[in-house]
Amino acid sequence: xxxxxxxxxxxxxxxxxxxxxxxxxxxxxxxxxxxxxxxxxxxxxxxxxxxxxxxxxxxxxxxxxxxxxxxxxxxxxxxxxxxxxxxxxxxxxxxxxxxxxxxxxxxxxxxxxxxxxxxxxxxxxxxxxxxxxxxxxxxxxxxxxxxxxxxxxxxxxxxxxxxxxxxxxxxxxxxxxxxxxxxxxxxxxxxxxxxxxxxxxxxxxxxxxxxxxxxxxxxxxxxxxxxxxxxxxxxxxxxxxxxxxxxxxxxxxxxxxxxxxxxxxxxxxxxxxxxxxxxxxxxxxxxxxxxxxxxxxxxxxxxxxxxxxxxxxxxxxxxxxxxxxxxxxxxxxxxxxxxxxxxxxxxxxxxxxxxxxxxxxxxxxxxxxxxxxxxxxxxxxxxxxxxxxxxxxxxxxxxxxxxxxxxxxxxxxxxxxxxxxxxxxxxxxxxxxxxxxxxxxxxxxxxxxxxxxxxxxxxxxxxxxxxxxxxxxxxxxxxxxxxxxxxxxxxxxxxxxxxxxxxxxxxxxxxxxxxxxxxxxxxxxxxxxxxxxxxxxxxxxxxxxxxxxxxxxxxxxxxxxxxxxxxxxxxxxxxxxxxxxxxxxxxxxxxxxxxxxxxxxxxxxxxxxxxxxxxxxxxxxxxxxxxxxxxxxxxxxxxxxxxxxxxxxxxxxxxxxxxxxxxxxxxxxxxxxxxxxxxxxxxxxxxxxxxxx
Length: 693
Ligand code: ADP
Ligand code: MG
Fold this sequence. Notes:
This protein is of the alpha/beta class. The protein is built from 24 helices and 21 strands. Helix 6 packs across helix 23 (648-664) and helix 20 (597-608) packs antiparallel against helix 21 (612-623).
């Protein structure tokens, strides 16, 4: 059967094969009223069909459609089979849809329109909204339309509703039967929207139930209850529930130690978040918390405080970073903080010699290393710990959504887990993807930071940009030059970086010390270049995106990003976060001749704001959630109808509904919830698809 080619095997499949759009044939305007610039439906008789050869062996097919008073040209490039089809249809009535444009002689035309011949039996396809379905080779629109119409008419009413009537009425949602019917045969677009929202709600609802159930399950597990209140000092924020007097009486003061440990005063936001983390750690349930903070908001200090608490309560802590460079940077920073306190930090990464590695592993296993820093491999390679109590995952912008669960299995018992992310995830996405986590936001930057000044310059202004950089170098500042992600090929990127390095070193800044950093260098070389730059022995660092995360050199106050339009917004924001880390004014210059409107929009956003949340929202709008999540499409979230940008209000409703339902029936074992449970189970089985590294 032809429908099977579309994966439609059952009536249910057909009902869920939703129209991609509707053609409003209730009132098709006469052709004389057609205006350029609008996507329009047109109807008329095929007057003539011409095929013209163009330069380069291409063919243009032009068909003139007329309704007696007006005309429009339909044209196709290089589709000879269309011509064959059309030749036989001269004089027949057809309907077409597409963007109307003005041709160069002022005539109206539609390029590559959707079209179909009107048959007598289509009479009832008039004066209504006609659904248009996704097709595949050899399956005619009419066949799908007829099948969907019958299914909607005769079977939709029999589809049982998995959602209880009380829930539907509480949220003003129609029944599934009604929605499925109206999605194919709506009388108005409002009806179609109401029907679509019902299905979108349902998708969000299952997603939220899955996340909330996981949250409840973790909550039922027994983890480590760190006795922090016995250590915490008088400054414990009110979010914690500990007996303060007792803490003071016992003399231990974790906050005092934090003060001694950090070279700066914590911001209010950092203090609040540390309080939330410690409060979680004190509870016997495993912590499952996400800390969100824009680049430079000081997440490392929060991690350090969590680790300190774990160590002072007699446990080991681990810190995992997405790259070796970042792991090393963390190890350096943490060692600097913890050494004076007599707490041992050890680094475990791939580049260690076998002997070093064995030593680090032994120290982790016998508890000598109180804090272990490494990449994800730290846990994956089955390093054993003697008493691991806390795992901090610095994910930066990488979502390893379910990785943390795998990790939970590997470690002893149930360590507390703290995930830190620098991607300011729009609230909607946090809810959709991290709905099983508690979320803390560091919504304040350390004091004295001047917002980075960002400029967008065209390639023909490059020399002026170089002059600007030269001035800053003369003042003793350092600079980054970043090369683009050329078609995501690391090899080409490396080459671009090498070329730029050569040019800057020999031609542009002969007076400066210029270093090069890219992903294909040996770890030891990378480390040498990084530490040279950190120590101020290099003035300029030419790099690929390897410097995107974690690199922290406050004296570097200018970043030049070449071919900036080749980067995604989130990535540009991350890159830019490498400057502006000290109290001096920092600059970011984007060099690009943006060729598309979208690219221009992205660069404009970056110039106009340094607020990561606004950038993330814009990114979500421009690119859709899939890109942002690092998974190809929101299909991985099993969302087919629901739209994370358009349907935010529904997501919130669905979350509330999920929480309400689970308070009544935490495991969904009530017989009335069987259908819901089944859906949630099947989507949880699919969750593996979400694991991204
Ligand atoms: P991120 O959140 O991007 O990981 P970091 O933890 O690397 O940020 O901190 C960025 C820089 O700000 C570091 O140089 C750090 O020492 C500094 N910093 C963090 N917190 C404060 C603070 N409260 N006051 C002053 N400087 C701070
Ligand atoms: Mg960081």
